[in-house]
Design brief:
Elements: H1 2-26, E1 29-31, E2 40-42, E3 44-47, H2 51-64, E4 68-71, E5 87-90, E6 97-101, E7 106-110, H3 115-122, E8 127-129, H4 140-145, E9 162-168, E10 174-178, H5 186-189, E11 198-208, E12 211-220, H6 224-233, E13 238-245, E14 255-263, H7 282-294, H8 296-311, E15 317-319, H9 320-323, E16 338-348, H10 352-364, E17 369-378, E18 393-403, H11 406-425, E19 429-430, H12 440-446, H13 450-460, H14 469-474
Parallel strand pairs: 3-5, 4-5
Antiparallel strand pairs: 1-2, 6-7, 7-11, 8-11, 9-10, 9-11, 12-14, 12-15, 13-14, 13-17, 16-18, 16-19, 17-18
Helix pairs in contact: 7-8, 10-11
Length: about 475
Amino acid sequence: MLKKNIILISTLYGIALASSLWLYNQKPLLMEDVGQLLPTKIKEVHSATSEAELQRWVKESISNHEKISVAGMQHSQGGHTYYPNGIVINMKNYNKILDYNPDEQTITVQSGATWDDIQKEINPDNLAIRVMQSQNIFTVGGSISINAHGRDIRYGSLIDTVESFRLLTPEGDIKNVSRTENSELFPLVIGGYGLFGIILDVTLHLTNDELYQIRSRSIDYEDYPDYFVQEVKENEAIRMHIARLSVAPDTLLKGMYVTDYELVDHQETLAKYATLKRDTLAAPQKFMLGLSRYSDWGKNLLWELQSKVYVGQDGNYITRNNAMRGDSKFMEYDNPSKTEILQEYFVPIDEFTSYLDDLRIVLENEELNLLNITVRYVNKDEEAVLSYAKEDMFALVLLINQGKSKEDIQKTEKIIQKMIDVTLEHDGSYYLPYYSYPTQAQMDEAYPRNKEFFEQKKKYDPDELFMNLFYKEYSQ
């Protein structure tokens, strides 16, 4: 009798344990990106390490009628990397360098590799990346999916530097994609936000690492367009450029300083500066940014100090690779009730001054905790279907601190829609990787080919296997 009871108890315990494990595995996971404004329950996360398992997961999802989203560092802030009750495939461990040809200046990497991974591989050979964001922490696949741009003024957006890639399609097949093979997919996948399949690996064109001298000075915003056209763009020695606009109340959208990276004659001294720099001085930068979050006094002080620091770099030397390793740790922000979002607006060069005058009116009449604005130049590039640069434009990247409550989100939404209206009135556009504050009408005006994009999505993925919240918001 005792033996039977022991067997019965053991059996019941085993059933209970198995049931609890099953229920635990079925419990939805809460997923959110760096913006923290779209927490969403998903089914599960797969961490990719091999092509075979990626193909298997896609085919299983087809059979099970599940939805897939593709994620890298998840710095896109509009739910581009997840979908309700869907499966998220994390690509960060799918990061090998597959082929590297220094003589041909090309490299092939798995899509989870970061720009830092590439820089470490190519820096010893005095080679550099042509186009990437100002920070090197992002995955190559993620950057291609948003068709990123950077500080370089001689190349366009990232699509210009891509030779080819391999794509795992919604049918579970693998296709080579380039401008000559399956070419119709090339401008859809690049800047396609992971909606046409999984980018497996990418072949990129590289360029020479170079030694630059930093030229930095203050400038009035009204003088900036002429300065850029006449002294920067027409000077072939200037290879990279960035500017910063004041968000301090005393000089709002008027004060500027510019930083140019000018090729030096004595390139033979490049090796002296070629060691890749690390992210440094995070603590003091973090402290000053923190002061600016909470007071106008802090914003004025930060602007004054920034101007001195950056203008103080004038005359220093830096390599191309190091100029493309911008600090990022100081921007890390963890607050239970607030978050920080990005916006990016593109305006034609000749509209810049009048645009800032109109944008300033909006900001002076609204309560928006604007922390930083950087300005870059983007060449006209209409190759991608969802191209943001319909002509040569300035790109203004805005960092905004906002609350996470429903009321705070609605408040920020109204202000950002006003800012986008001003941008559109000046023949501009806005960048899509961020929170879905823009209206459908604004989307239609800024991206007149978006209906074509979504029609092609349904053509290549009729069962909508690859999904995300961005698609859900704007595809209807």
